[in-house]
Amino acid sequence: MTDYIKKYWESQGDMYGASHWASWGDNWMIALEIETIAKFINHGDSVIDIGCANGYSTLQQAAAHRLRSIVGVDYSGSMIEHAKDRLAQSSVNCQMSFEVGDVRSLPFDSEAFDVAYTTRVIINLPTWNEQCKAIDECMRVVKPGGTLVLSEGFWEPLMKLNAVRQLCSLPLLVEHDFNRYIKMSMLIDYLSEKNVYYEVHDFSSIYYLGSRLIRELVTDINSYEGFTNPINKIFFEIEQNYSGGGFGIQQAVVIKK
Q1: Buried b / exposed e across 139-157, counting CB within 10 Å, b at 16+?
Q2: 3-state class of 245 per DSSP?
Q3: What CATH number did the domain enclosing 23 receive?
Q4: Which of 25, 67, 120, 137 has the most CB within a 10 Å radius?
């Protein structure tokens, strides 16, 4: 991971502390990520949250399941410090810890966890080769029969959403400097070559259409700060019952080892 990406996330941790803003301002999308990942975690599992940021989501997964253990790992030292502070103030009922680590070289034994998941982590790696290295490393720490959930940003939905935005004369959405969205076609080819079973879960398309398209067409976006526009909540609630269409930049690729 290049220095400027690491510096960015260190600064986010320093600036936002325990807030979800340290990871992302879109609290509705974060909630959808948490709900989606939770579907693949069972009571009694040992879990690793790779790229846990300040532990905002990790602690919610611990509260939602009777886990044997859960560990959060992040490249940013400032994020981990805030995660440890969160943990000290929590009342989780399982073995839980946070530590600094690199998704490309995780400090854990092979086949150590029932479930591993990433949330917008691999997109921080600047090249496809490094992203593949990270995927292999995530798979390495999962037990046979276990599950890896890659909840990441993807290129193809961004292009599809931008095509519609262009038809509506809206400016195109772009990647941030610290993100390199994964090309789903390349990931599918990569996983197919490895002969592993996977499923793609589109859990955000309706929300993205509402929050990144319709919001700008039917509301005064300058009247609301951040993601406080009430239309975001409306489409979050719709997304919980309906999805699909391929417009959701966030997708979950679920791999069974």
Answers
A1: bbbbbeebbbbbbbbbbeb
A2: coil
A3: 3.40.50.150
A4: 67
187: closest CA among 145, 151, 158? 151
Q: What are phi and psi of 181, to 5 degrees?
A: -60, 145
Considering only CA atoms, which of 194, 202, 181, 193 is closest in space to residue 254? 202
Q: What is the pTM of this model?
A: 0.96
- Provide the token pair at 233: 């909540």
Tell me, yes or no, whether 236 lies in a domain: no
What are the pLDDT digits (tens) for 54-113? 999 999 999 999 999 999 999 999 999 999 999 999 988 899 999 999 999 999 999 999
Average pLDDT over residues 202-224: 97
| Type of residue numbered 136 | D
Structural domain contains residue 219: no
Distance CA 57, CA 20 (A): 9
Its domain, for residue 20, covers 3-154+178-207+248-256
Domain contains 227: no
Interval 112-163: pLDDT, tens: 999 999 999 999 999 999 999 999 999 999 999 999 999 999 999 999 999 9
Query: Whole-angstrom Cα distance, residue 25 to residue 45?
Result: 29
d(Cα 193, Cα 203) in Å, to the nearest integer?
Answer: 25
- Domain count of the chain? 1
Q: Determine, yes or no, domain membership for 163.
A: no
Q: How confident is the model at residue 215 (pLDDT cuts 50, 70, 90)?
A: very high
